[in-house]
Amino acid sequence: xxxxxxxxxxxxxxxxxxxxxxxxxxxxxxxxxxxxxxxxxxxxxxxxxxxxxxxxxxxxxxxxxxxxxxxxxxxxxxxxxxxxxxxxxxxxxxxxxxxxxxxxxxxxxxxxxxxxxxxxxxxxxxxxxxxxxxxxxxxxxxxxxxxxxxxxx
Length: 153
Prior knowledge:
Layout: H1 9-13, H2 20-24, E1 27-31, E2 36-41, H3 55-72, E3 79-90, E4 98-108, E5 112-121, E6 127-139
Antiparallel strand pairs: 1-2, 2-4, 3-6, 4-5, 5-6
């Protein structure tokens, strides 16, 4: 297990209160020894004007899973995990149902981490998108709320 401590789905679900993931209907579905899975509905909250899953919703799924997974690997009393770069390749359109994101680490370092999320259509298992998130691990006091700056050293 790569996690700092064992986390339950209930603990992770408590992190969704009144933020973007709650608004989009995101839910955690599985915590494995080295992966995290989440579900996102394809509905009026997550589609673009032409009725297909919005690329930004795919990025929200990826960043939510990757940021939480990164946080799960560190001591939360000493450090924070903040996304610093995300990319996504949108492979297949989805118009209804649910997508599943499975997030796994590519690199878990002391100051940076890279997490890859494979997004598939739940009903068919077909790949919808693949995304990679780079996360900075910073000291708890480093994130300045007044200036909104991040110091990485």
